């Protein structure tokens, strides 16, 4: 990760580029977020180490765009390509680089959560061309799984932050802005505990 912070880099759906965290959602403003796109983001921490040109970041953005627009072949193609990329990196990592495994695992977890988000937004792509916001039951089922998984990395802010950032983006794509407060508040609390005060303030305000 180097010395830079791993706070979320908001993603502008119109341009496809990060536009600065200050324009993204916060716990105090999440309820008023626009439903036409999303400005949450994929945390830079998900890039990990030895990721040329932000490969994983690029795949995650492609998946989020496809999730929003219902581009099924692009979505699943990006998932497969990213899995292959991560597998190749793991196979080429030296035995001494065991810490690298802990960087890759959250990425694999993130891909699984993207697939879960696809399942609730596009339960039947052919029959529902406009996509849909999941109802409370469907959303709470995947949120329960998300919260159980987060315990595995809760003590490591460098791994926790990018997962929460991606969840914020997914909830925005799913048009469930009413559920943004939980990951944002958890991000703020975890950032404060890790003495990343700028990250905490950005998540709250």
Q: What structural class do helix, strand and pairing data support?
A: mainly alpha
Distance between the termini: 25 Å
Q: Approximately how much helix is present in the residues? A: 55-70%
User: What is the gyration radius calculated from CA atoms?
Assistant: 16 Å
**Integer average pLDDT:** 76
**Strands, total number:** 2
Q: Tell me the strand percentage band.
A: under 5%
The helix count comes to 7
Looking at the structure, what is the overall shape?
Answer: globular
Question: Which series of helices and strands comes N to C?
Answer: EEHHHHHHH
Strand arrangement across the biggest beta sheet: 1-2
Poorly predicted runs of 5 or more residues: 1-24, 31-53
The largest β sheet comes out as: 2 strands, antiparallel
Walk me through this protein's architecture.
- By secondary structure, the chain is mainly alpha-helical.
- The protein is 55% helix and 3% strand.
- The protein has a two-stranded antiparallel sheet.
- Helix 2 packs antiparallel against helix 3 and helix 3 packs antiparallel against helix 4.
- The longest helix has 24 residues.
- The N terminus is likely disordered.
List keywords for this structure.
single chain, mainly alpha, 7 helices, about 200 residues
Q: What's a quick, concise take on this entry?
A:
The protein has 205 residues and is mainly α.
Blueprint (SSEs and pairs):
Elements: E1 8-10, E2 41-43, H1 55-69, H2 72-92, H3 98-121, H4 136-150, H5 157-173, H6 181-193, H7 197-204
Antiparallel strand pairs: 1-2
């Amino acid at each position: 990760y180097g010395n830079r912070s791993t706070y979320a880099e908001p993603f502008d759906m119109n341009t496809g580029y990060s536009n600065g965290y200050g324009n993204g959602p916060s716990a105090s403003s999440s309820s008023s977020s626009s439903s036409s796109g999303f400005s949450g983001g994929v945390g830079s921490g998900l890039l990990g180490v030895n990721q040329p040109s932000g490969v994983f970041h690029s795949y995650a953005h492609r998946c989020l765009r496809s999730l929003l627009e219902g581009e099924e072949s692009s979505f699943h193609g990006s998932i497969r390509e990213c899995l292959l990329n991560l597998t190749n990196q793991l196979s080429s990592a030296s035995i001494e680089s065991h810490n690298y495994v802990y960087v890759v695992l959250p990425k694999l977890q993130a891909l699984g959560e993207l697939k879960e988000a696809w399942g609730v937004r596009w339960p039947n792509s052919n029959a529902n061309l406009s996509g849909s916001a999941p109802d409370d039951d469907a959303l709470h089922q995947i949120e329960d799984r998300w919260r159980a998984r987060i315990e595995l990395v809760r003590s490591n802010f460098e791994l926790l932050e990018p997962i929460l950032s991606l969840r914020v983006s997914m909830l925005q794509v799913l048009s469930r802005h009413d559920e943004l407060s939980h990951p944002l508040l958890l991000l703020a609390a975890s950032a404060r505990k890790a003495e990343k005060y700028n990250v905490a303030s950005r998540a709250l305000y």
